[in-house]
Q: What sequence folds into this?
């Protein structure tokens, strides 16, 4: 279990139980983090499966997360003392753009494929049996072979 941070799932449960008495947004090199007040103890909101603080590059997305995910709408302190836009230790991932491009292509193909299947289902023409279709294509194949000779 994390000792330095609280993950989002635990923070949600603590908000529901009214155990969180306040939240502060703290500027750090590379972005913003959230400090949660639990009585006299303060802990950073952390990432899942690690004991590292969760970071947001944008103050807007940080606040949106607090409002929409944790249902915290009041921030006690906004400390930008140590905030800086860039972080030398954080390099952008080079594969993200390619991965997102592939995801969008896959989603577009999936949508096209579903449209094709639905169009086939909605087609009012009578269906033909597998044997009849195989016979038709066998005849076409034979005709093409004879033409090629």
A:
């Amino acid at each position: 279990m994390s000792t330095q941070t609280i993950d989002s799932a635990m923070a949600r449960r603590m908000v529901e139980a009214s155990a969180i008495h306040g939240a502060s947004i703290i500027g750090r090199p590379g972005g913003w983090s959230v400090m949660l007040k639990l009585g006299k103890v303060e802990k950073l909101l952390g990432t899942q499966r690690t004991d590292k603080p969760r970071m947001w590059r944008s103050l807007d997305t940080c606040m949106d997360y607090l409002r929409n995910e944790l249902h915290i709408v009041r921030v006690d302190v906004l400390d930008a003392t140590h905030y800086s836009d860039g972080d030398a230790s954080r390099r952008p991932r080079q594969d993200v753009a390619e991965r997102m491009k592939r995801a969008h292509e896959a989603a577009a193909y999936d949508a096209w494929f579903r449209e094709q299947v639905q169009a086939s289902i909605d087609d009012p023409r009578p269906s033909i049996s597998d044997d009849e279709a195989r016979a038709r294509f066998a005849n076409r194949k034979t005709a093409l072979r004879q033409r090629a000779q």
